Amino acid sequence: MGTVALPPWPAVPPAHGPVVLRAFADGDAEVARELSTDAYVPLIGTLPASATTEEAQEWIARQRGRWAEGAGFSFAVARADTGRAVGFAGLWLAQLPQGRAAAGYAIAPGHRGQGLASAALRALTGFALTLPGLHRIELHIEPWNTGSLRTAERAGYRREGLLRSHQEIGGRRRDMVLYAAVHD
Q: In this predicted structure, what is the pLDDT of residue 3?
């Protein structure tokens, strides 16, 4: 993946409302372990299901390396008032030369239902749209994931359509709803 020259890490951490997006820290293993208890999160990334503390720390190390390897920005989503991590948000830039990026996010189960995901997505999108040459950010969400569909809409993304059999997750081809935010 390291073929894309990435913009610099943000000097000021992106923030919106109750959240700030920051670099992952060693102390974030607790949120990684909690994310690993969600049945879906391990299917879509590199965090093992029911991760041990060591596996959680290895996942954090991988997240810290995403920018250096040219994949994109992987942020810890933290509460602005305490700095405590509650999830993650990623901006994946393999298609930056074409003016596109993909975004992803997850909030740990114990912190859901508080508007943190939509605040994190707004912060991520605001940061993304400052990047030179980036005109479009896409989200791919499974149709059954109503919480994530609502998050995208609350964060200002527009639904563009259904991508049938778009990607493999957990050993099966899955449909994805395409949402996008564009730079006007």
A: 57
What single string gives the DSSP state of each residue in 48-114?
PTT--HHHHHHHHHHHHHTTTTTSEEEEEEEETTT--EEEEEEEE-TTGGGTEEEEEEEE-GGG-SS
In angstroms, the CA 25 to CA 29 distance is: 8
Question: Given this model, what pLDDT does residue 184 score?
Answer: 76
> Which of these, 62, 74, 63, lies nearest to 101 by C-alpha position?
74
Q: Select from 3.30.930.10, 3.90.1150.10, 3.40.50.150, 3.40.630.30 the CATH code of 15-182.
A: 3.40.630.30
Count of beta carbons in the 10 Å neighbourhood of residue 118: 22
* Domain range list for the chain: 15-182
pTM for the model: 0.95
81-105 pLDDT per residue, tens: 999 999 999 999 999 999 999 999 9
For residues 140 and 158, give the distance between their C-alpha atoms in angstroms, rounded to a whole number.
12
What is the pLDDT at residue 1?
44
DSSP secondary structure letter of residue 9: P
For residue 111, with 0-12 CB atoms within 10 Å meaning exposed, 13-18 middle and 19 or more buried, which class applies?
middle
